Amino acid sequence: MLNKEVLLEVKNLVTDFKTEDEYVRAVNDVSFTLHKGETIGIVGESGSGKSVTALSIMQLIPNPPGRVSGGQILFHTKDHRTIDLTKISAKEMRSLRGNDIGMIFQEPMTSLNPVIKCGEQVMEAIMLHQKVNKRAARLRTLELFSQVQLPTPELILDRYPHQLSGGQKQRVMIAMAMSCNPAILIADEPTTALDVTVQKTILDVMLDLQRQNNMGIMFITHDLGVIAELADKVVVMYKGKIVEQGLVMDIFSNPKHPYTKSLLACRPPLDKRLKRLPVVSDFMKRDENGEIIEIPKSVTEAIGSVIITENERKEAHKALYSGDKILEIQNLKTWFPATKSFFGRTLTYTKAVDDVSFDVYEGETLGLVGESGCGKTTLGRTILKLADAHEGKIYFKKQEVLRLTEDEFRPLRRNMQIIFQDPYSSLNPRITIGNAIMEPMKFHNIGSSNNDRKEKVYDLLKKVGLEEKHFQRYPHEFSGGQRQRVCIARALAVNPQFLICDESVSALDVSVQAQVLNLLNDLKKEFKFTYIFISHDLSVVKFMSDRMVVMNKGKVEEIGNADDIYHNPQSDYTKNLINSIPKGRLEDITSSIEKKKSASLVNY
Amino acid sequence: MLKFIAKKVFYGIVVLLGVITTVFFLFNVLPGDPASIMLGQRANKEAVEAIHRDLGTNLPIMEQYALYLNDLFVVSFHDFKDTESHWYLNPQKYSWIPLFQVSESKVIVLKIPFLRRSYITKRPVSDIIIETLPETAVLAFTSIVIASIIGVFLGIVAAVKRNTFYDKLSLVLSVLGMAAPSFFVGLIIAWLFGYVLTEYTGLSPTGSLYDIDVWNGEVLELKNLILPSITLGIRPLAIVVQLMRSSLLDVMSQDYIRTAKAKGLSFYAIILKHALKNALNPVVTAISGWFAGLMAGAVFVEFIFSWKGIGYEVFEALTKNDLPVVMGATLIFATIFVFINILVDIAYGILDPRVRLK
Questions:
Q1: Contacts of B254 in chain A (CB under 8 A)
Q2: Which one of A267, B66, B155, B295 has the minimum C-beta count within 10 Å?
Q3: Closest CA–CA distance from residue A173 to any residue of chain B (Å)
């Protein structure tokens, strides 16, 4: 670092949340320092305390139940005063929030007020802190909107949030956080909900702004890959504590703590084929007291032990593609009415799936990848007759699915199951998970009695890595990863042969994602499933699938062997998709560090 | 927006048509012969038949239905020569502008809907409604305005002071307010403020919007409005308080409120600018639903306070089997419901820009 001016010092921060009878320590003795022009990446899984740390700095911890119960947060102002944010009054804190410290949140969809125009939401902060009139604030907002590269800033100024795309909303959020030239920008998973291509542009915008304003950025994420080319320093958090911190290069090239190693190893690699992804438990165990016991192993070792060779894969594919087709899709179109005449006649259609054809072989995993809105989810739903096809044919085991009535289709439905994206909303909160798994069994007359079914559920729970005692519990008692396991168990309850996984791991942290992906692969081996694996994340799709279909605007962009597509993409769309994936390679990190250095040399 | 409104109006007309049909057939199966109601003790065969002929009640039911619809529609079909026909364009019944002549004696006209005449007083039902409806409207409107202003305010306070003594108290009082029957509360209020405390309040237990004064004739008595409108407003008030409270608390936990806090806005700026507009939607629905409901539901309150509104009139008509009045009032209530619903949909569009798209 060329300039060592300190902006923020967090010293021994402790934040507690009160539950019914005790205080739970969400952040435990956390210390780090942020300098001017520096980016700190704070990495950890959900529940590791990274967001709570950020909210503690902003003094936005909801109180009760939360409280900052120890430590100091020292902020060095522009006029060289040092303020302890834990000690100042609410009024003083308000004058800092949005002015000296800006914050961007994870969910651009819900973080903007739906009934106030975008421009006004940004202008509000400017008018509040800089004491300027509406016209000046408007001009400044226009300037900000063009800085974050929003198209047609004048128009966006008067739009409501629901009229913008997710990426555009996040740009508005960034503009809002940047509106008063803050010294510090806290970004809490700002790109997690966005497509990789959008993520890349957003990250570029943030870096650009940082270079211009020389601000300090705290970037919170669950995915080490995202910050590889962005951060100067990395802080790894686990269960409320910092387990490792250091320069980005050191963390990536020589991780010390087993948890850091597992975070690096659990990302689906793009250049290799693995049997299974290394997970946290490969690197460490926890004893009864919650103390971490390290299993000595390096990241390279862990990955090296599970590589599939080119030949093994070729052999497997030979057997696979000489087999039968389980699903054939011919010229499938799913169109939704877009505009209707006064009396309800459809005038134009939104072509969600437009003339798509492909086959799926028995025992294959077919990946379906594309950006949000490309029609991949609708395609999956159409195959299961959850959305109505407009035209085309679908054969499942030589039976034409679209011509069957709902009654005739029911026995087939047992064979075709789907695992949805959101494990939080796809389970009924008032039904115990045991009953949730048992319900489809009853419906399809599987098992002779309730006791028989219960036995099966116990069996399934064990298969997906849960326990028998979980039968009587309700969804809210489980973490996201566990809930997704429940959803998988529910899909398996009716002994299907064919499963559609619709963004099944997208809502999960990378570390949990690796466990669920491994589970899906283990189950596939055991039960000989055929998967259609839908995701916006090309690295995950590539890891899972034999062949992959790239979709764009309802049409198939490219189809073929997953490795071939990755190494030799034919269309520009696929190339862009692959280039946007943060890969976390050491050479990329080195080059980005070099780039930053030369940029700061120009500035000073 | 225009298309949106046109659509709502179209659906509204369909709903009204349904109501008219239901009301017509429902009241036709009810017992009660208009002739004996009108004639009372003087009924004899000739007189009864004459009345049937006059009202058309001896016709087949479908023809009666067609006649009824023809009477209600703005554009209608009539015979202007044959005075004996039920389709006769009787100047005593209708006031019209002729549109075009269909044949020698048939004509299509534009007219004010004809709601028939009361069996008892022989007055046109529309006159009765025009006379009494404003009184009820004033009463219901005052109650709902009182309920919404006070209710929104108290609801906000309850949400802001959540889990304090005030919040708990407001919950208890709201439950009481919702549970207490209006005829009971009405009696208590009339007795307490109009009789026991009348020296201090200067109010009387009963009275209408207009009183007949010996010297000045009809005079406006606004103070008579106070007690019945409070009585009528208690239940919507209780509901608005609780709805406003829960809706605001719900909104305050949303992500965009956290964003507003991160901007450095003060607590009250957040409530007033960011939370309130979002929180008002369910409240607006409730208020408008209640307003339409109050118009129809003011019967007891009007009865207790002798308020000469449409509820009072319907009550009288029901006891005397005066079907045209009951039917006319029912139709008016339905029309008001539909009309207010259209207004609410438009208000939604203004409050929440997301609705406009759909």
A1: 110
A2: B66
A3: 9
Question: Could you tell me if A78 and A100 are in contact, meaning their C-beta atoms sit under 8 angstroms apart?
Answer: yes
* Cβ contact A115–B278 (<8 Å): yes
Half-sphere exposure of B181 (CA within 13 A, CB side): 6
Per CB-CB distance under 8 Å, the chain A contacts of B354 are: 114, 160, 162
Instruction: Tell me the pLDDT tens digit for each residue of B221-277.
Output: 778 888 888 888 888 899 999 999 999 999 988 889 988 988 888 888 898 888 988
Query: pLDDT tens for residues B53-101?
Result: 777 777 888 888 888 888 888 888 888 887 777 788 888 778 888 888 8
* Calpha distance A209→A214 (Å, rounded): 8
Between CA A52 and CA A59 the distance in angstroms is 10
- A61/A66 Cα distance (integer angstroms): 6
Mean pLDDT of B152-168: 89
Q: Inspect the interface and report whether the beta carbons of B274 and A116 lie closer than 8 Å.
A: yes
The residue type at A530: T
* Phi/psi at A339 (5° precision): -120, 145
Q: pTM value?
A: 0.76
Query: Contact, A560 vs A548, CB < 8 A?
Result: yes
Spatial distance between the Cα atoms of B61 and B70, rounded to a whole number of angstroms: 14
B117 backbone dihedrals φ, ψ, rounded to 5°: -115, 155
Spatial distance between the Cα atoms of A376 and A405, rounded to a whole number of angstroms: 24
Give me the helix-helix angle, B310-319 and B323-351, nearest 10°.
150
Two tokens at B283?
A: 């409240």
Substitution target in A93, A110, A113 with the highest count of B β-carbons within 10 Å is A113
ipTM above 0.90, yes or no: no
With an 8 Å Cβ cutoff, are B263 and A116 in contact?
no
Supply φ then ψ for residue A365, to 5 degrees.
-115, 115
Report which of A281, A283, A228, A280 is spatially closest to residue A250, judged by C-alpha positions. Answer: A228
How far, in Å, are A444, B108, B192, B306 from residue B201 at the CA level?
72, 57, 10, 19
| Cα nearest neighbour of A186 on chain B | B262
Q: Which residues of A touch B353 (CB under 8 A)?
A: 114-115, 160, 162
Instruction: State whether residue B255 sits within 8 Å of chain A by CB.
Output: yes
Residue A508 identity (one-letter amino acid):
L
Q: Which residues of A touch B7 (CB under 8 A)?
A: 342
CB contact under 8 A, B263 and A342: no
Say whether B263 and A97 touch across the interface (CB within 8 A): yes
Crossing angle, helix B276-297 and helix B323-351, to 10 degrees? 180
| Residue A287 identity (one-letter amino acid) | D
CA distance A320 to A352: 30
Domain extent listing, chain B: 125-356
Helix (H) or strand (E) holding A594: helix A586-603
- Residue B264 to residue A125, Cβ atoms within 8 A: yes
> What tens digit of pLDDT does each residue of A266-310 get?
888 888 888 888 888 888 887 777 777 877 778 777 777 778 888
Fold adopted by B125-356:
MetI-like fold (1.10.3720)
- B263 close to A (CB below 8 A): yes
Q: For residue B355, how far is the Cα from the chain centroid?
A: 26
Contact between A476 and A429 under an 8 Å Cβ cutoff? The reply is yes
pLDDT of residue A284: 83
